[in-house]
Specification:
2 copies of one chain form a homodimer.
Chain A lengths: L7 E5 L4 H12 L5 E4 L8 H6 L8 E4 L2 E4 L1 H11 L12 H25 L6 H26 L12 H7 L2 H11 L10 H11 L2 H4 L5 H18 L5
Parallel strand pairs in A: 1-2
Antiparallel strand pairs in A: 1-3, 3-4
Helix pairs in contact in A: 1-3, 4-5, 4-6, 7-10
Chain lengths: ~240, ~240
């Protein structure tokens, strides 16, 4: 349990899915913190370089001068340190916890890292069709998982949002932006009814709303900044 | 805490780093289990396909008919379920837990997944030199981390092996095999004195010894099976 004199800082970037995770977790636990927006590709701050020398990426949570990196680890850390405050983020049952971790990792490794984000990077219609298919395959497994393990619950976490909701939900704003940029409906209600309804519910949670960037701003950020950067870098960076 | 009538099965493959993690964790907690060696590339068992339909990979821990997949998640699950038995695998302090998770993830994403294993897949001397350099860079960061966060302790976990020791230590047998196959000393005592001494200590822990395959058997497994498979597949599969 954290002491009341805690100093908490979050190094972030407003458009980052991973940073949104840390923001939602802090809000769920009612933790006050100083938010420090970072430059990511040039003129990185000394604080960022010192706090995350391995990856030089956000989010970094700095709790009483000690940095914690990687969004999944930060969310678990927040849940551990502020265990007595607010709702539990990870399920208390070990098996449910393992299932939440499994699908959260799946989202990072599959849905988020590769298939879905690739749709806006493709060069040809054939590539586009292939990546859409990959993305649908990735989402299908999540729809099946919802059906199998979470059906009848409003959230993956049960009655309230939890670890897996945060992991996937933080990405929904980018799903909407990608849908707009590529003119493809990804979380289609006809294809993925459970995910579509869950996404709607997730977006209306109070602790979530204020941390989700507007779709148009993300589209603009993509057009003005990310497109050029992504074209100049390796496919999945 | 698990009940005494628990039925625990481990689906594994003897040469897999990831399976070794689950074996060590189960042994540390004194859990009895049935070990079921799996065919990985053809004729996969119904039980494996049913238990891990997403990745179709080992290890899978089956606890009272419920499957848990992914080695990092399995080790945490074992630590959670058998919390009252044997030593804790993850540190109890949230910050130390976050640090252990960070470096374990780093090992999976960097040291293990790419740089080190690539050394035996390269086609040219130039590629070999490059991958050796990448591998040394990856190990350097771990050496620095040991110096900074774990120095003076025999293990990353403190007086006993813990989560990070298992994550990295399970790979040491393959490091030795790769050193033999490629004729390159990777965990060189002159370059990485702390890691080299830690590796020696890790290898002599009673709970570890019996689960570590002999170097020559891994070299043989590589020459007879893996080399052909790896050459036929994508670089990091």
């Amino acid at each position: 349990m954290a002491a009341s004199g805690d100093e908490v800082k979050l190094l972030g970037a407003w458009a980052s899915t991973y940073v949104i995770r840390a923001k939602i977790a802090l809000q769920l636990k009612g933790v006050s913190y100083e938010y420090l927006e970072q430059q990511l590709w040039e003129n990185q701050s000394e604080l960022l370089l010192k706090s995350n020398p391995v990856y030089k990426k956000v989010p970094v949570l700095i709790h009483n001068d000690r940095p914690i990196c990687e969004s999944a680890i930060i969310v678990q850390y927040i849940d551990d340190v502020w265990a007595g405050t607010g709702p539990s983020i990870l399920p208390s049952d070990p098996y449910e916890r393992a299932i939440a971790r499994f699908w959260a990792r799946y989202i990072d490794d599959t849905v988020l890292a590769s298939a879905t984000i690739k749709i806006i990077k493709v060069k040809t219609e054939k590539e586009k069709a292939e990546t859409i298919e990959q993305s649908f395959a990735g989402l299908s497994l999540l729809e099946e998982a919802y059906e199998k393990s979470f059906k009848g619950k409003p959230f993956f976490g049960g009655d309230n949002i939890g670890y897996l909701d945060i992991a996937f939900g933080s990405f929904l704003c980018w799903v909407k932006a990608i849908e707009k940029i590529s003119d493809v409906k990804l979380i289609d209600e006809a294809k993925f009814p459970l995910l579509a309804k869950w996404a709607e519910r997730f977006g209306s949670v109070a602790a979530v709303k204020e941390h989700i960037p507007e779709t148009d701003k993300l589209v603009e950020c993509y057009s003005k900044v990310l497109k050029a950067l992504w074209n100049a870098r390796a496919p999945n960076n």
